[in-house]
Design a protein that fits this description.
Elements: H1 9-20, E1 37-42, E2 57-60, E3 69-70, E4 75-79, E5 87-91, E6 105-106, E7 111-113, E8 120-122, E9 130-132, E10 141-146, E11 150-154
Antiparallel strand pairs: 1-3, 1-11, 2-4, 4-5, 5-10, 6-7, 7-8, 8-9, 10-11
Length: 157
């Protein structure tokens, strides 16, 4: 027995529109240029002292050894506030300014902030998304991996 189901054209249009809506979302990527990242942090070093506690962070503006690479503007490494032993790494360059002259700092609210445009970014939970200011782009993030001695930060690609 064949049954023909009649669908009203308006219902069909509405169904197709609802299916397509999720794909219309804006996918914003960081505007900070790709740059090589390979940096090792030894947790026994004095450099890493600030990373030992949750919500601790470390700004890296210079390479510590010759074969390391610190991205476009340097690195901001953050110990997650939620989970002990989870770390996030971001480029220090502001995605709105895209300049090595406007390097982010961590403000009193534990957000990354640009000294020029005053955009702020969430850094403690791994997102790096904007929380204020003129920017729409998130921070460029990098992969982190625990090692036997500390932490390795590198490009995901």
């Amino acid at each position: 027995v064949n049954t023909l189901i009649m669908v009203h054209p308006k219902s069909l249009y509405l169904g197709i529109t609802l299916l397509l809506l999720p794909s219309c979302g804006v996918d914003v990527h960081s505007t900070v240029p790709d740059a090589p990242v390979y940096y090792e942090i030894d947790f026994a070093s004095s450099e890493a002292a600030s990373l030992r506690q949750p919500s601790g962070y470390l700004r890296i503006e210079e390479r510590s050894i010759e074969n390391s690479a610190i991205g476009f503007g340097g690195l901001l490494v953050v110990h997650s506030m939620l989970e002990n032993g989870v770390y996030y790494a971001y480029d220090l360059a502001c995605p709105h300014e895209v300049s090595t002259d406007a390097l982010l700092f961590v403000n009193d609210q534990l957000e990354a902030e640009c000294p020029q445009c005053h955009s702020t970014y969430s850094i403690l939970y791994g997102g790096g998304g904007p929380t204020g200011g003129p920017t729409k782009a998130p921070l460029r993030s990098y992969a982190t991996q625990r090692t036997s001695r500390g932490l390795l930060i590198y490009n995901r690609y």
